[in-house]
Amino acid sequence: MTKLNWIQLKGFKSIREINLELRHLNVMIGQNGAGKSNFINFFRLMNKLVQKDLQFFLAQQGGADRFLHFGRQITDAIDIHLSFKQNAYVGSLVPDQTGGMIFKEEYCLDNKINDSDDIKKQRLASRGDKESALPNNSSTITSQLSDWQVYHFHDTSETAKIKQSGLIHDNERLRPQAENLAAFLFSIQQSEEYQRIVQTIQRVAPFFHDFILKPEKNDPERIRLRWKHRGTDEYFDANAFSDGTLRFICLTTLLLQPERPMMILLDEPELGLHPYSIQLLAGMMRSVAHQTQIIASTQSVTFANEFDWNDLIIVELADNASQFRRLSEEHLSSWLDDYRLGELWEKNLIGGTPSC
Question: For residue 184, how far is the Cα from the chain centroid?
Fold first, then answer.
């Protein structure tokens, strides 16, 4: 795994400026509106930038002023610096007259040159370009930036795609809203990881026996999520799962799948989960974080209790801008013998709560 070590970001939404170290596991805690979701949304922007789909994404989201910190009257650019162990990506986006954004500059830095300490600067987009000039091939920097994925499993409504039939060959990777869950599980059902997924689901849903993963009889190119109830011969579809159980199934599949993305981003993954499910979710995140970098946000004291002090990032709103900071062990040492981290947060001893 190639970890993103450091992020420097200026002018993006509520983030006026941050300079933040990222670790294998990063859990943001803070009040509503502090900027946790905006931080995660930055990685959505990077997804579109790498895919050379930036202009459509900007237009779809309302234009450049929706992304610039308090709009172009206050902020004239979004400046990005992403540092890895042996290279870095640098970009600067400025608004144009059409509501989109263009590149002021874009380049990558590489210090792995014949094992020397020299740093090579590779120019990418030229001034005025509308899309990134990152190579389309499997270059190191492109592969790093393109293997980040934001997941959001909150839609469990009757019309959610996860509850509909889907193409059976849509199985290369679990999609951001688990739209292809049935096809993806079908593709890995002979693996050890599939058995771990089933066994983990059974820990929170003892009535669940296994998935029934077969092509549709009337259309073998499509598949629907079905499952078998323990102790009976009855088959059910995804509508028979509670919302919380279905979300837990998605999260378990994501975290225990055979080949995970380089980075997984989750916005409040604990929503709708039973406290025991939250404990299992946090345990899975801890167990895979050294193979897959994880960034998550939460407002749950129960969820925060499951992590170490050095996993947490406190997010607060100060002077109309999001502030991100790490905790200090020295500051916490007198409290940790008596309280868990979530309890300290709830008591407003570590920040991350509303203030006047």
Answer: 19
Q: What is the pLDDT of residues 95-108, one digit of tens each?
A: 999 999 999 999 99
Q: What is the DSSP letter of 68?
A: B
- The CB density around residue 63, as the number of other CB atoms within 10 Å, is 18
Give per-residue pLDDT as tens, 168-212.
Answer: 999 999 999 999 999 999 999 999 999 999 999 999 999 999 999
What would the pLDDT profile of 46-82 be if each residue is shown by its tens digit?
999 999 999 999 999 999 999 999 999 999 999 999 9
Phi-psi category of 240—alpha, beta or left, where left has phi over 0 and alpha has psi -120 to 50? Answer: alpha
CA angle 92, 94, 95 (to 5 degrees): 155
Sequence-distant (≥ 6) Cβ neighbours of residue 349 within 8 angstroms: 335, 339
Which tokens is 73 given? 């009257």
CA dist., res. 92 & res. 102, Å (int): 8
Enter the tokens of residue 202: 């059974």
From residue 9, give the alpha-carbon distance in Å to each of 52, 96, 140, 178, 323: 20, 20, 21, 30, 12
In terms of Cβ atoms closer than 10 Å to its own Cβ (0-12, 13-18, 19+), residue 301 is middle
Instruction: Return the percentage of the chain with pLDDT > 90, whole number.
Output: 83
Neighbours of 270 (CB within 10 A): 25
8 Å CB contact between 110 and 87: yes
Q: Which amino acid is at 322?
A: S
In this structure, the strands spanning 120-123 and 148-151 are unpaired
C-alpha distance from residue 254 to each of 91, 213, 265 (Å): 30, 18, 11
- Secondary structure letter of residue 162 according to DSSP: G
